Amino acid sequence: MRTSSKYPTSYERALIAEQSRLRGQIIGAYSQSEFLLLDVAIQVRIWKEYWGLGLRYHRKLENRIKQAKLLFGAEGPLKKYEERIGPLLVELEPLKDDRDFLSHAFCRIHTKGEAVSYFYTMIRVDGEHMLRIQKEFSEAEILELERKITDLSQRFVILFSEIYIQEELEIFSGKHTTLPL
Predict the structure, then answer these.
(1) 106-123 pLDDT, tens per residue?
(2) Does the reported pTM lie above 0.90?
(3) At 83, is the secondary structure helix, strand, or coil?
(4) Distance separating alpha carbons of residues 118 and 100, to the nearest angstrom
């Protein structure tokens, strides 16, 4: 993609800006969904039905999903939302690897005529080894990923807004609540 000049052309700057916008939208939308899964675990501590569940702060998505299934499956005020949260959790998990690439990887943009490809390279630790792994997204694939994650995030926000209003939970109450690490 580079021209002979050391400065990017206006076309190259536009590609970089669009890639940055898409990357930010994807990461932001995904993060909202992750946040809501953790926040609800803090919010429900006001109800005795959830006290014995051993709710914790989980960094890994798969553990947040397990905890959400536990919460929404337990007898209590969230039980009535179990069927609605289930499909959202199923959709969220397979998006994790793409989100990880977009969050932690270096991006190179390649063009060939009108075709644009985004190559993401990141380092993963596997036991005692560091692996350099790459993933390529076509322009259509990155646009579809952005659409899919944004749509999913909006459905998470709609559902959790309903839960927080109906169950009289407050997302930003100004009060500090704690959850064990």
Answers:
(1) 888 888 877 888 888 888
(2) no
(3) helix
(4) 15
